[in-house]
């Protein structure tokens, strides 16, 4: 135990640095994923087959291949086609695009889960499509999709660990480096796991539950 | 393209006219060449067994469903069709949106917006569809909610209101659009017995104090008899019999009408 | 951040190269499928253990297993793979890359599958358990003859999704040297100094396997649902 405390004193700051990078990656990927999910989720419901088809292609492509392959492809192959990202950007772009595809299905599912009676009331009140979506349907869909989005955000957090494989200096990367010099694998990888666990259980999950509670009250839930 | 139907119904038209309207779901014909007129300010109740097409009549008038044949007119103008080069063709969405402002509907399951207060529910459409200002919409909504007896509940969300209260809010919400025709689709069927009365009272006062054309699908025979100007008995997609409440309830001519009424009244 | 854009400067796709590397990639694909299958089989069994352990009624056991499951689900699989591979030698046990990988994937997906099992078990009406008790069935008989057959159909979609998920996660094994598809592609890429064809082929191969599988699974699920409906 004493050894572990010494270990933390020596390497603690590096873990902190890595965690900060992980947090940055997670936040940036999350913004991208939310944007992509909203866009393609709604496109998926369009009546125009071209719009719907595009979103289906996007969703099936990013869900059908693994994040690691997409990450490598974006970082190593895309430059050959003319689009070059630095490794930090390639990292969160890959994670965001990938998890955004899963998010798109959540968005679609929750819009479809809004009771049909709401659409009929909007129809009877002669509301236009945009007003209906913005004022009535989407707010209710948001409440429905919050619980599974909580899980998705944790998957996103875990997904950012892969960016260490293209040498982004996140938490996972630091753990590997420290393990490489100290050979104290249990301490190095174990500490990293504990930090991921704490971020997921103590920050993300409670945060999402709080937002769910807030939005639920706003939606008139008792 | 409809050739045998007039482009408009001239002066003093009925408020609603169904002209040879047919509705099919696949093989099943739900409404069969229906002719139905509703005069201005008339109150018509539609009764009949389930599956007879009653609700379909309302839903088509509210443009929730498309008709397969025939034309529906509202206040003299075609609803389901529009005139182009002196011919009637199927209405496009723009025409429907224009006409839909004249028709309002109250649903069996209320369909209130759960994330808005009673006041919010009533103000929503006037502001965002009619373009009314916030102050105007607020004043009108408060007035209507007071009229339905919910002045003290205007800031409550639907989840905090009883079924009867929610339905009254739904009525106020529909009235806020000042429709010419108001449709009631079995509005008390989903309510507990003790709150049915309060909703019927609101409808009763609407009938007597306001000039509103009302079309009701209902199982509340006593109520229909009391406030209707005319009763239509539907059977298998057609009007089997229609007449004044006295005629229908006291002296039904059609055998089916008699069967239906005796079954319904026996159950009570 | 975003460094450049020229239209396709180095895009010279060589089909000859593709055919040269294809045999090695296909062989590696087989390895990948084996890894996915084995990992899934392990996860199926351990997941059931996790699920049943939480139904023993002994609060301590339930809480501990619950926390273990949460911990596994909250930490990245790639990190767990590293942990299991490198921790062994620290305490004198040498695990091969394959074994470490299978343990890591098995445990990781067991945690997810346990949630799917639990949902399936919970969906079986309480009355079924009570009927078994009234008929004096043993716990084993209750589970295997009555409960699990009813818990399985609602659990199938989730189980199918995780099968596809495991298949797509196998590339993570390359970080400890397991010779699966991504590992082979990277090796080829660095040997010939051409990454375009190897990585693109990996993507295509994954799509070719995962899309039909996902589609087939959905068909299978509706088949099961229909079959049940008919039986009811």
TrEMBL record, chain B:
Primary localization: membrane
Protein's recorded name: Glutamine transport ATP-binding protein GlnQ
Encoding gene per record: glnQ
Homology family: Belongs to the ABC transporter superfamily.
Its membrane topology: Peripheral membrane protein
SMART domains documented for this protein: AAA
Classification via PROSITE patterns: ABC_TRANSPORTER_1, ABC_TRANSPORTER_2
Positions of the ABC transporter domain: 16-261
Molecular function, one GO term: ABC-type amino acid transporter activity
One Pfam family in the UniProt entry: ABC_tran
InterPro entries per record: AAA+_ATPase, ABC_ATPase_HisP-typ, ABC_transporter-like_ATP-bd, ABC_transporter-like_CS, Ectoine_EhuA, MetN_ABC_transporter-like, P-loop_NTPase
From TrEMBL, chain C:
Pfam families, A to Z: BPD_transp_1
Domain ABC transmembrane type-1 as annotated: residue spans: 29-217
Keyword Transmembrane helix: yes
Membrane topology: Multi-pass membrane protein
Residues that span the membrane, as ranges: 25-50, 71-89, 199-217
Recorded GO MF terms: transmembrane transporter activity
GO biological process: amino acid transport
Keywords in alphabetical order: Amino-acid transport, Cell membrane, Membrane, Transmembrane, Transmembrane helix, Transport
InterPro entries per the UniProt record, alphabetical: AA_ABC_transptr_permease_3TM, ArtM/GltK/GlnP/TcyL/YhdX-like, Ectoine_EhuD, MetI-like, MetI-like_sf
Cell compartment(s), UniProt: Cell inner membrane; Cell membrane
Xref: Gene3D superfamilies: MetI-like
PROSITE patterns from the UniProt entry: ABC_TM1
GO cellular component, one term: ATP-binding cassette (ABC) transporter complex
NCBIfam families reported in the protein's UniProt record: ectoine_ehuD, HEQRo_perm_3TM
Family per record: Belongs to the binding-protein-dependent transport system permease family. HisMQ subfamily.
Protein name in the entry: Inner membrane amino-acid ABC transporter permease protein
């Amino acid at each position: 135990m004493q050894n572990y405390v010494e270990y933390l004193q020596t390497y603690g700051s590096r873990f902190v640095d890595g965690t900060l990078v992980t947090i940055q990656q997670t936040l940036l990927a999350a913004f991208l994923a939310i944007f992509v999910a909203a866009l393609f989720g709604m496109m998926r419901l369009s009546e125009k087959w071209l719009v719907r088809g595009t979103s289906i292609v996007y969703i099936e492509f990013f869900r059908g291949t693994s994040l690691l392959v997409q990450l490598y492809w974006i970082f190593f192959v895309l430059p050959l086609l003319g689009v070059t990202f630095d490794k930090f950007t390639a990292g969160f772009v890959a994670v965001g695009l990938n998890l955004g595809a899963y998010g798109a299905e959540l968005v679609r599912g929750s819009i479809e889960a809004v009771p049909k009676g709401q659409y009929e009331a909007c129809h009877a009140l002669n509301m236009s499509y945009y007003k209906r979506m913005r004022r009535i349907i989407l707010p209710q869909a948001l409440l429905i999709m919050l619980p599974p989005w909580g899980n998705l955000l944790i998957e996103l957090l875990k997904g950012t660990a892969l960016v260490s494989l293209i040498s982004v200096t996140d938490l996972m990367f630091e753990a590997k480096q420290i393990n490489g010099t100290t050979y104290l694998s249990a301490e190095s990888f174990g500490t990293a796991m504990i930090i991921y666990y704490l971020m997921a259980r103590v920050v993300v999950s409670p945060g999402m539950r709080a937002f769910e509670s807030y939005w639920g009250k706003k939606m008139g839930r008792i | 393209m409809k050739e045998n139907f007039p482009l408009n119904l001239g002066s003093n038209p009925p408020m609603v006219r169904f002209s040879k309207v047919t509705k099919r779901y696949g093989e099943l014909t739900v409404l069969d060449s229906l002719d139905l007129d509703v005069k201005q300010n008339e109150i018509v109740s539609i009764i009949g067994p389930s599956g007879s097409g009653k609700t379909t009549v309302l839903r088509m008038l509210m443009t929730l469903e498309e008709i397969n044949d025939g034309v529906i007119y509202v206040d003299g103008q075609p609803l389901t069709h529009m005139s182009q080069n002196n011919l009637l063709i199927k209405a496009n969405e723009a025409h429907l949106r224009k006409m839909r402002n004249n028709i309002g509907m109250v649903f069996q399951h209320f369909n209130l917006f759960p994330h808005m207060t009673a006041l919010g529910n009533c103000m929503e459409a006037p502001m965002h569809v009619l373009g009314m200002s916030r102050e105007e919409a607020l004043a009108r909504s408060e007035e209507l909610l007071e009229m339905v007896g919910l002045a003290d509940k205007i800031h409550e969300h639907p989840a905090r209101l009883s079924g009867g209260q929610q339905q009254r809010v739904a009525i106020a919400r529909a009235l806020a659009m000042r429709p010419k025709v108001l449709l009631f689709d079995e509005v008390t069927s989903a309510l507990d017995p003790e709150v049915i009365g309060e909703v019927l009272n609101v409808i009763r006062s609407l009938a007597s104090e306001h000039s509103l054309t009302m079309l009701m699908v209902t199982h509340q025979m006593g109520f229909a008899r009391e406030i209707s100007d005319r009763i239509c008995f539907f059977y298998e997609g057609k009007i089997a019999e229609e007449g004044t409440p006295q005629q229908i309830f006291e002296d039904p001519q059609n055998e089916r009408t008699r069967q239906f009424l005796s079954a319904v009244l026996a159950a009570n | 951040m975003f460094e450049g854009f020229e239209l396709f400067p180095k895009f010279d796709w060589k089909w000859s190269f593709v055919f040269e590397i294809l045999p090695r990639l296909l062989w590696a694909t087989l390895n990948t499928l084996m890894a996915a299958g084995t990992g899934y089989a392990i996860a199926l069994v351990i997941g059931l253990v996790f699920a049943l352990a939480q139904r023993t009624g002994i609060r301590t056991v339930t809480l501990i297993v619950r926390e273990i499951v949460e911990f596994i689900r909250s930490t990245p699989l790639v990190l767990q793979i590293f942990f299991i591979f490198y921790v062994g030698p620290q305490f004198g046990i040498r695990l091969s890359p394959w074994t470490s990988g299978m343990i890591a994937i098995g445990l990781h997906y067991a945690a997810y599958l346990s949630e799917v099992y639990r949902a399936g078990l919970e969906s079986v009406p309480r009355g079924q358990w009570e009927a078994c008790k009234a008929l004096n069935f043993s716990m084993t008989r209750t589970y295997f003859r009555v409960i699990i057959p009813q818990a399985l159909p609602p659990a199938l979609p989730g189980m199918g999704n995780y099968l596809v998920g495991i298949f797509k996660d196998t590339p993570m094994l390359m970080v400890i040297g397991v010779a699966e598809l991504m590992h082979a592609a990277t090796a080829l890429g660095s040997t010939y100094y051409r990454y375009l064809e190897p990585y693109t082929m990996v993507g295509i191969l994954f799509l070719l396997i995962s899309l039909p599988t996902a589609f087939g699974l959905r068909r299978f699920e509706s088949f099961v649902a229909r079959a049940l409906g008919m039986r009811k």
